[in-house]
């Protein structure tokens, strides 16, 4: 079995198991990857930070009971290679284009790692759910309230795209054995 077929099979099994568990639990509401922000974007009246941010890995889950879990790894300013002066973040839940709840602040490491776990009062239904990761502390000084968002739930096309149909130079669909993306991590 080739790698792509194996990955597809594993993904199908995981999704089947996930939906089966969530059906029985009747508690699942929202699951999404977390991506870095770009300047000039406003979501529910909250502006993005003034510089581009990237996330190496991140995800957010929100249940219909308001249990929120956000985990980010490598949330950094690519221009600095670290989290810069941002030392704390909080998560805001957006429903129907309005911020409905915000978690307490947690520490953000210099390498951009943070984990937010909270139970929030979220309206039911929460239409158009979005989770924002917001600046809550700068240079180890907590802010009175979270400000700009530096990451949010959403999708982003990765620099390494291995779709067989595009035949670009960054993938190995040509099976030449060379990892064209080895120096771009």
Describe this protein's structure.
- This protein is mainly beta and 185 residues long.
- It has a domain at 26-153: Immunoglobulin-like (Sandwich).
- Helices cover 12% and strands 36% of the residues.
- The strands form two sheets. Strands 1, 4, 5, 6, 7, 8, 9, 10, 11 and 12 form a ten-stranded antiparallel β-sheet that branches.
- Strand 4 and strand 5 form a beta hairpin.
- The radius of gyration is 18 Å and the shape is globular.
- It starts with a helix and ends in a 32-residue tail after the last strand.
- The relative contact order is 0.17.
Key attributes of the depicted protein:
single chain, disordered C terminus, 185 residues, 1 helix, two-stranded antiparallel sheet, mainly beta, ten-stranded antiparallel beta sheet, 36% strand, Immunoglobulin-like
List the helices and strands and how they pair.
Blueprint: H1 3-25, E1 28-36, E2 42-43, E3 46-47, E4 57-63, E5 67-73, E6 86-95, E7 98-102, E8 106-107, E9 114-119, E10 130-138, E11 141-142, E12 149-153
Antiparallel strand pairs: 1-4, 1-12, 2-3, 4-5, 5-9, 6-7, 6-8, 6-10, 10-11, 10-12
How do you describe this structure in short?
The protein has 185 residues and is mainly beta. The protein has 1 helix and 12 strands.
């Amino acid at each position: 079995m080739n790698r792509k077929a194996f990955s597809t099979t594993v993904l199908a099994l995981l999704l089947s198991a996930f939906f089966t568990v969530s059906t029985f639990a009747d508690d699942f509401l929202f699951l999404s990857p977390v991506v870095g922000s770009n300047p000039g974007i406003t979501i529910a009246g909250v502006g993005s930070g003034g510089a581009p941010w990237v996330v190496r890995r991140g995800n957010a889950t929100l249940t219909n009971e308001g249990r929120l879990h956000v985990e980010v790894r490598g949330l950094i300013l690519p221009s600095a290679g670290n989290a810069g002066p941002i030392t704390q973040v909080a998560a805001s839940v957006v429903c129907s284009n309005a911020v409905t709840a915000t978690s307490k602040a947690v520490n953000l490491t210099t390498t951009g790692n943070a984990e937010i776990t909270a139970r929030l009062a979220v309206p039911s239904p929460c239409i158009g759910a979005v989770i924002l990761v917001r600046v809550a502390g700068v240079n180890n000084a907590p802010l009175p309230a979270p400000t700009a968002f530096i990451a949010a739930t959403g999708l982003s096309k990765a620099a390494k795209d291995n779709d067989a149909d595009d035949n670009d130079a960054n993938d190995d669909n040509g099976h030449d054995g060379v990892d064209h993306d080895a120096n771009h991590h």
